[in-house]
Amino acid sequence: MGAAEMNSAALPLAARYQKRPLGHFYALLAVLLAVLAALGAAEWDWAALTDSERRAQAAARIGAWLAAFARPDLSAAFVAHAWELTLQTLSAAILGTALAVLLAWPLAMGASRAVCVGEERDAGRSAHWWPWLRPWLRHFPLRSPSALLCAACRLLQDILRAVPDFVWAIILVAMIGLGPLTGALALALNITGILAKVYSELWDGVDESRYAQVRSLGGGRIATFLYGIRPLASRNVLSFTLMRAECAIRNAAVIGAVGGGGLGAEIWYQVRFGAWDKVGTLILFTLLLTLAADLASNYVRRQLRGDAARSGAAPASCALPGSVGEATPRAAVQPSARAARPPLRPWLAAGFVALALSWSLWFMGWGNHAGEGGAPRNHLVPAAELFTGQAWENLRFFERLLKPELDLAAIGLGDPDKAAARAAQGKAVELFADYGVADFWRPAAWAAWQVELQKWFVWRVVESAAVPLAIAVIGTLLGVGGAILLTYPHSASFQLHAAQFTGESPAPWQRLLRALQLAAARASAVVARGVPEVMWAFLAIAFFGPGLVAGTLAIALHTLGVLTRVFGEAVDNQPLARFEPACGASRATTYASVAVPRVWRDWMTYAFFQFESNVRAAVVLGLIGVGGLGFQFSFNFEWFRFERAGTYLIMIILLTVLIDRSARLLKLSRVGR
Amino acid sequence: MQHRGTAARRGFLLSAAALALATTLGLGANPALAQQAPAKLIITAIPDDGDADRMRENFGALARHLGKAVGIPVEYMHVENYAASVTALATGRAHIAWLGAVTTAQARMQMGDRLTILGCRDIDKGFVSYFIANPSTGLGTVADLGELARAAQGKGWSFTFGSKSSTSGHMMPRKYFMDQTATTPERVFRSVAYSGSHDVVMQMVADGTHQVGALNYASWDKAADELKARAPIVYKTPPYTNYALTARADLGPELLARLRAALLTIDGSTPEGAAVLKYLKAGKFIEADISEWQGYVDLLESGIDIGG
């Protein structure tokens, strides 16, 4: 990224060497351990890939799908149906994102430490009794009321993000009833959590020294936010909002728990029926929708940036908050140029957004007649229910979710009678019955301890988290590996402009070949990214049967698509002159030994973000038959065993919180610093 | 500095939140309709048929029939999730619901006396589930499920139920399996999946995605012959009570009586009636009492192992 270069160039030489990233070696070690743990902790059933009969079956299904994909069902009736579903999906996504932006803004203000707590990084360090305690105190929420508010807001946004949207949809059924709006609101709640997290990270990521002047002039936290932090981060916030709108369109394809329907529900239904020609049509529509959203958001971005030449500078992708183009240093030299231009383009962009929003409101309210016999009716009316006491009264239906089943009897706590009864049945945990603490070096002891612990419900809940984690670890690694390979043919620098730094002069047929390679790589990346992971999972399950392998493949494919785009942009953003020192080497050598090391740091940041979103995706995949935490949660929720579902829900939230907090601690979000 | 900004920031946060709420309110536009005397009845159903449009069409016909008979507009709202239909009924967001036996019991456990039964089909008091197998398994008809379990031992077959909350696609097949084999499907088969609906179970077994599956007899009977040949029956369960048209008791005895009467008069003489009966594979609707589903409530409350 541009800023990375500038910042590191500005540092004194000594500081740069001091910052020599030994961390990467630790990181590699950690990755290796994670892989071993992932392979060991979950039950991998490779039979779908190793057993020849099942492999042949899977190959036959993939073949049938590819053949049908080439001949999608384009009958007028089905295309009209798919078009209707596409519009439903689109309006739900636009409405959901718009609401989410409104809700996320105040929530992010609360969750951003820079805005809400407003502590200066180094203030009071020298005056403090224990200077080394200071950094740790910053992570202690009880140190001041505002810090507590900040922690509460962060928890709230994590809950919004972690709870799967079908659960929000069911909760909203109780509050506002059935209808297409319910699905859109559920989507809005989920996106609110995601946007609030990213906004707050972007605001926290602004270097304090850049708005220190507002503070020193006596500005309070609000003034610091309005005149310092917000303008400095606004470009990134805008980029990410647009990017998120694209992702919402992709994810909206997946909702359909209540009323609304949409592309996702239909694909899932047709996949299970093996109606591959129809699946082909639906995936085609999903891709078209994704691409149209991509173009539209690029259009808005370009209008708002007022600089057509930089339109490609902002890598955009799902769940990669760090990937927004950090172009502020360059922006500083442009005010004169911008002032000279009539300020029409922002209005164009605003008009476009307003148009899209009013269309989605109209469609959601009056245009969508699905399921009511054709009589026109305003579907937006149910939203008013939110302001009646009845809606909130109905929340009591889910009260039991707040009383999670902790199964204290199994570990001899709580009611002594029940604990005694459990112990009498032999179903209580007696951890050191066979092996004492001193036996920790014996593998058999660990196995026995695990068996004992499995009698405790909460332990089984914790263990079920291994499935999404394992899927995310392996899937992300496969995706990263694939993306590194695919980035080479995907990069314009290496396929079109290589002559400028390798010194070769390729023949016309060679250039044509490279252009074809580029086109093929870009097309496959677009397909891999444009189809949401849940849809990949539908396909993988249909091909290989339900299980971890299908889930991992789905995650890996989607990760491949998303990462190839941002990886490729990181490479293409490098000035070609940087590759010149390798003059004479082949393109592949230059790629491996010059280009990759230059962008490695950015790549790893993107990869970590993708990992975080993959963990959540893997939980959701559990809902559709991959197993593990998500499956157990939805099973108990759908059987109204809310106490048990509550325990699983806590685990899901805990997983999200842990990954989020560790990312914040590692400051990975500050791309380019 | 930390304290000086607090009040101002709180004020700003509050006003920002108020703004967000006000905007949401603006979207709502109209005040809520009073819920006391329903001007419109909402009917929903568990999505046991994977085809949403087919359900909309046929339950729409049922809604029109009931609406004509009681003089209040009745509207069908489709949901894609069993739990959502129970939630809607239990929280008053739907007034009438077509539920399976398990979902009826779940609603009963949530609602107590606030749940009542309008009626059920003539076939619901002797409902049966089928176990089906892909021909590649080489399974013929088995005398009981113990034989099936012994045949499946060590073969690495995978098994599929329908929806998790389905009576005929999960609960009863599982109960009979556990009664007859003294073990659970999870211990016998390589994997146990929940495919979502009955027609999907049949398709997946026929395609060999899963080798063995369980579904209700009506869905098997109405499938095409070609599909039946690829997913033959290996076992038929004993009969049990299943679906019911349930309603909220707070609709009032007078309205409930009219709804019950309207349901019992459904026959092939009107286009709506004919469509509903044909779709639901029923000859007519008959009277039923909530006590006939009490067995399921007891079963659920006994903490039966339902997997998961």
Describe the structure.
The complex is a heterodimer of chains A (673) and B (308). Chain A is mainly alpha-helical and 673 residues long. Chain A folds into 3 domains: 268 residues, MetI-like (MetI-like fold); 48 residues, no CATH class; 204 residues, MetI-like fold (Orthogonal Bundle), CATH 1.10.3720.10. Chain A is built from 31 helices and no strands. Chain A is globular and about 85 Å long. By secondary structure, chain B is an alpha/beta fold. The termini of chain B are far apart. A 6-stranded mixed β-sheet of chain B has the order 2-1-3-10-4-11, with helices on both faces. A 5-stranded mixed β-sheet of chain B has the order 7-6-8-5-9. Chain B folds into 2 domains: 146 residues, 3-Layer(aba) Sandwich (D-Maltodextrin-Binding Protein, domain 2); 109 residues, 3-Layer(aba) Sandwich (D-Maltodextrin-Binding Protein, domain 2). The N terminus of chain B is likely disordered. The radius of gyration of chain B is 23 Å and the shape is globular. Chain B: Belongs to the phosphate/phosphite/phosphonate binding protein family. Chain B: This is Phosphate/phosphite/phosphonate ABC transporter substrate-binding protein. Chain B: One of its GO terms (biological process) is transmembrane transport.
CATH superfamily (homologous) name of the largest domain in chain B = Periplasmic binding protein-like II
CATH superfamily caption of the largest domain in chain A: MetI-like
Query: Using DSSP, what is the number of strands of chain A?
Result: 0
Main pleated-sheet profile of chain A: none
Task: Please report the number of helical segments of chain A.
Answer: 31
The average pLDDT score of chain A comes to: 78
Under the CATH scheme, which class of the largest domain in chain B?
Answer: Alpha Beta
Helix % of chain A is over 70%
Q: How many domains would you count in the coordinates of chain A?
A: 3
**How many independent structural domains of chain B?**
2
Low-confidence segments of chain B: 1-8, 22-35
Order of helices and strands of chain B: HEHEHEHEEHEHHEHEHHEEHHEH
Would you state the CATH class of the largest domain in chain A?
Mainly Alpha
**Greatest interface and its residue counts?**
A-B, 72 and 75 residues
Portion in strands of chain B: 15-25%
Stretches of chain A where pLDDT falls below 50 for ≥5 residues?
Answer: 1-11, 123-128, 307-338, 669-673
Which outline of chain A best applies? globular
Shape assignment of chain B: globular
Strand content range of chain A: under 5%
- Share of helical residues of chain B: 40-55%
Largest beta sheet of chain B: what is the strand line-up? Answer: 2-1-3-10-4-11
